[in-house]
């Protein structure tokens, strides 16, 4: 059956493809990349990929041979849809999240994987090292000095609304097929983001249905499409998604597995920018306009511009958190904020 979104996205440019000879070449490419790129066949030699090429059932059996004996978190959507895990009409989630055994879910899929009324099943962002023994050692990308978080995503045909992530991301398709539709960071206004405190998975998502865009309700989405790129990935292919780029993700096969790696270039003791945004909404957004203008200037001075004029007149030892943060000064600032927020 044709995908309803095919006509809409058929003419969008494809994410550029790059060739990588070895880990050193990939490392060099990642150090300088500021836009997405695809590497075909980057993980084609993984045993998990090879198992999936034999059959989805073989891929599931391979994972079961490495799983740890602990409950897994899985999202189960409503039947009769097209796999879109999103909000319902009341802005609650249209899926349930439960704890279960991986072997029980996989046994269900062994029998019902191609059933037309199968409810969407989605294991999201499962920590590879925490939930599997030996899987990472046999199936991983050498990312040099980076210390990434390796996660595995497994499920049936699903659609995940456009969102972004704070870290850089290398997404590797192990089983099935995926389609990513990507937008630069600055397109957030044209994606019509939903709530930031009621989200499917911790990040604000686009309210636009990519399979049936309502251009009357979301006219600026046409502008977003002018900047969109599409990547269709088969098993073994990988996609680099730069930090904060927006991406809509679809699992196109009856069963799909993706392994991704997240890493930040920021110092590990730094806080999360989303926390700062939430706090600014609490403390600044609803102030009178003249006070908001002052605080905008203060943020520019101390955070966004932050040149030498900020501290040149202060003796070095007295600059405290106005100097570049260290683990110690970041710890003091975090403790201060926790005390302040608990009052």
UniProtKB/TrEMBL annotation:
It comes from the Bacteria. Residues 113-278 form the JmjC domain. PANTHER family: HYPOXIA-INDUCIBLE FACTOR 1 ALPHA INHIBITOR-RELATED (PTHR12461), HYPOXIA-INDUCIBLE FACTOR 1-ALPHA INHIBITOR (PTHR12461:SF105). This is Cupin-like domain-containing protein. It comes from Sphingomonas gellani.
